[in-house]
Structures are given as structure tokens and as C-alpha cells.
Amino acid sequence: MTVINVNSPKGRLSAEQRRTLAETLTDAVLVPEVGQFAPQARPGFQVLFTEREADAMAIGGRVLADTGIDAMVIDIAVMDGDWRQEVRTAVIERILAAMADAVGQPEPSPAWWVNFRVIDEGSWGSSGGVLSVLSLLETGVFTEDKVKAIRAALNA
Questions:
Q1: Are 117 and 43 in contact (CB under 8 A)?
Q2: What digits encode the pLDDT tens for the residues 77-92?
Q3: How many CB atoms are closer than 10 A to CB 66?
């Protein structure tokens, strides 16, 4: 289970860009998380687009409406698992590249920030109860190497 929340100024992203990002941001996390491209795992991902008026966001002590700065915050919340630094780095780089590609920029704005949060095992709920990444390991979407890495990370 993964939630990606894109916080942007109102009107910054078009409906078509949001459609593109719904898919590319999902895959930007999915591939490093499960170890392979697995479209059947997509239902476990939500992408939320939160828009705020340009005077309801600030950077450097000034509201965006007064700066012209292209600022966004992308917040990623994932279930506990194999989130070594190199995996987190891959996710963050893939998220920023997908954002730049979707809006037609050659590179991400330095004012696009990504927060990567791991939700502790036993602290994620759905379907009327608490979920565990361990119950997802037998679904066939994770590579064998990822299954071993997740089990090792949770037993550490």
C-alpha cells in the first residue's frame, strides 16, 4: 500500500498531466518497491492531487503568488519493507523525473520537494483491519530478492 500526495498551486497541473502522473508516479514507486514492473500491483497505490491557492503556499517566507517560484511538495507514504537508502534514492529520483516529464520540463524545479515516509509495520489499515506487508509477499508481484530483503528488513 502506497499513497503519493502531490501538493501544488491551483491550476499548476492540467487534467492530462494528472492522468499521466497517476500512472508514472505509481510506477516510480512500484518498481523499486516490488523489484519489477508489476501492473497487477497498481491497485495498492493511490495518487492524490491536492491544489492550493498560490497565496496559501509559501517558500522562503513569501507566498507563492508573490514569488513566481514553481514549488510543489510530493509526499510518499509506504508500508514498512526494504527501504534501504539506495531504494529510497531510486524512488525519489524516479518521482522527480516523472514530474518533470509530465510537465514538459527538462529537469525538476529545485523547489519541488519530496518527502519519503515509511509507515511502521502494524500501523497501516484497510479492509476493516490492520495490514502487513508480510501478507502481500505471497501475491507473486514481488521478486524473490525483494521478498528476502523485506523479510530481512522487518526481522532486523
A1: no
A2: 999 988 999 999 999 9
A3: 10
The pair phi, psi for residue 62, each rounded to 5°, is -130, 145
Q: Please, which residues have CB within 8 angstroms of residue 132's CB and are 6 or more apart in sequence?
A: 79, 121, 122
- Cβ–Cβ under 8 Å, residues 78 and 28: no
Q: For residue 42, which of 58, 57, 23, 18 has the smallest C-alpha distance? A: 23
Q: What order do you get walking across the sheet with 45-52 strand by strand?
A: 45-52, 2-9, 72-79, 112-119
54 CB-near residues (< 8 Å, 6+ apart): 9, 10, 63, 64, 65
d(CA 138, CA 69): 45
Q: Which three cell numbers stand for residue 152?
A: 530481512
Read off the pTM.
Answer: 0.91
